[in-house]
Design a protein that fits this description.
The protein is of the alpha/beta class and 406 residues long. The protein has a domain at 7-110 and 222-388: TIM Barrel (Alpha-Beta Barrel), CATH 3.20.20. The chain is built from 13 helices and 15 strands. The chain has helices spanning 44-55, 86-98, 148-167, 182-187, 202-220, 242-254, 281-287, 291-304, 316-325, 339-347, 357-361, 365-370, 385-388; strands spanning 16-18, 21-23, 27-29, 37-38, 41-42, 60-67, 102-108, 125-126, 130-131, 142-145, 172-176, 226-231, 259-263, 330-333, 352-355. Strands 3-6-7-11-12-13-14-15 form an eight-stranded parallel β-barrel, surrounded by seven helices. It has a three-stranded mixed β-sheet with strand order 8-10-9. Strands 1-2 form a two-stranded antiparallel sheet. A hairpin with a 2-residue loop joins β4 and β5 (41-42). The longest helix has 20 residues, at 148-167. The radius of gyration is 20 Å and the shape is globular. The chain binds flavin mononucleotide (FMN). The site of flavin mononucleotide has 25 residues, from β6, α11 and α13.
């Protein structure tokens, strides 16, 4: 690999501050579920995966979708945070730090989007009673409404989880407020039909997220970087739209969030709004363990899962609306596949760029861009990595590495 080629003077590759944290560059690996858990905690594969990303040059790597409690899991194998896994999480952060990178832990809760049967009777729960399409064939056909106690306890779980993340050596945490998981369900007028102080106006729908954030701040202190991944739009009529998303950003800025990672989509309704590109239905059917689910996917999959064509920087136009409204650091995400994309994001006023699939394809992408070895990712957004998450060994790209830079 060439050491210097002129690309390393790009502002993308210069150190940058994320609150109190100095990152070696402006490239963040997006939280992308790895499928590398053992006993609901990190496996040696997960340690290797994030160490490789750090060795490959990312400034900050995000360990994906860690539930804040056992009941907050979408599926049984998923990681949930507890004191017993702190030593194994520490191995992840030690590996990342030894490779010169920084590490963030994405903290989430599935709400009613669950097919995890390892829950007490009466769960899963979200903002309001409704059909749980995702759990329909797993014996969890409905999501019930959370009580005020559920809300308070879960906000506390976010705080405890953030404290454990910090204790595990993470340099930041990212609260998941998007993609149709719990806090996004509360934010979405389509999913939240409550009439108490957690439903109705935007102020009310945001209250739970703000309470969770307050518990997190109490737990980690004022200086610790706390990112939030938010929706620019849910991607369907009646869901959260860009005007409210802008207001959410303003309020999260006032509430002391360090940076926003701007995304969109609702996993139960518009999963490909957040990804764009091909629908890997055939592969998803292949890895599905439940026979019933396989049949349902075959029959109804094409009709219910809408596709969206891939476009580079596909959230840019919506994200600009947020950029105009707040002064806090913003992270542009979605279809960033080249150094040109990254540089134009910075020119547009975004502070960081966040990538998932380009780094699943090649964990060394940042180093190779910096060395001038490649100009763009060869990821063709086939989205088969989505199905690979559920195969032994976890997420990977099915394409060979050859052909980059063409
Ligand atoms: C295999 C895979 C797993 C993902 N898992 C998560 C996840 O656990 N949490 C999350 O917030 N987003 C997840 N995403 C979405 C990505 O973080 C990102 O928002 C999306 O892929 C768009 O970025 P990209 O165009 O750089 O891939 C996942 C994406 C992929 C491809």
């Amino acid at each position: 690999m060439k050491e210097h080629s002129g690309h390393d003077v790009s502002p993308v590759f210069r150190p940058a501050r994320l609150g109190s944290l100095e990152l070696r560059n402006r490239v963040i690996r997006s939280g992308a579920y790895e499928g590398m858990c053992v006993d609901n905690g990190p496996s040696p594969d997960l340690v290797r995966h994030h160490r490789d990303l750090a060795a490959g040059g990312v400034g900050l790597t995000t360990v994906a979708y860690c539930a804040v409690s056992a009941g907050g899991r979408t599926f049984e194998r998923q990681m949930f945070i507890r004191p017993g896994i702190v030593p194994r999480l520490r191995e992840v952060t030690d590996g990342v730090h030894a490779a010169g990178g920084s590490a963030s832990l994405q903290l989430g809760h599935c709400g009613s989007f669950s097919r995890n049967r390892d829950v007490p009777p009466g769960f899963p729960r979200g903002p309001s009673f409704g059909i749980n399409r995702y759990g329909l064939l797993s014996g969890l056909p409905v999501g019930r409404a959370m009580t005020r106690d559920d809300v308070a306890r879960t906000a506390g779980d976010f705080g405890d989880a953030a404290a454990m993340a910090r204790e595990s050596g993470f340099d930041a945490v990212e609260l998941h407020l998007g993609h149709g998981y719990l806090l996004s369900q509360f934010l979405s007028p389509a999913a939240n039909r409550r009439t108490d102080r957690y439903g109705g106006s935007l102020e009310n729908r945001l209250r739970f997220a703000q309470e969770a954030l307050a518990r997190v701040r109490e737990a980690v202190g004022a200086d610790f970087p706390v990112l939030a991944k938010t929706n620019l739009a849910d991607g369907f009529a009646g869901g959260l739209g860009i005007d409210e998303a802008v207001e959410v950003a303003r309020r999260l800025q006032s509430a002391g969030v360090t940076a926003l990672v701007l995304s969109g989509g609702f996993v139960s309704r518009t999963p490909f709004f957040l990804l764009r590109g091909d629908n890997p239905l055939k592969d998803m059917i292949e890895v599905e363990e439940s026979r019933l689910h396989r049949v349902a996917l075959r029959l109804f999959g094409p009709a219910v899962v809408r596709s969206y064509p891939f476009k580079e920087m596909f959230f840019l136009d919506l994200a600009r609306r947020v950029r105009e409204a707040v002064s806090m650091p913003l992270v542009l995400l979605g279809g960033i596949v080249s150094l040109d994309n990254m540089e134009s994001a910075l020119e547009d006023g975004f502070d960081f760029v966040c990538l998932a699939r380009a780094l699943i394809h090649d964990p060394n992408f940042v180093n190779r861009l910096k060395a001038g070895e490649v100009r763009r990712s060869a990821c063709d957004h086939c989205n088969r990595c989505i199905a690979e998450m559920d195969r032994p060994g976890g997420v990977r790209c099915v394409l060979p590495l050859e052909g980059e830079g063409a």
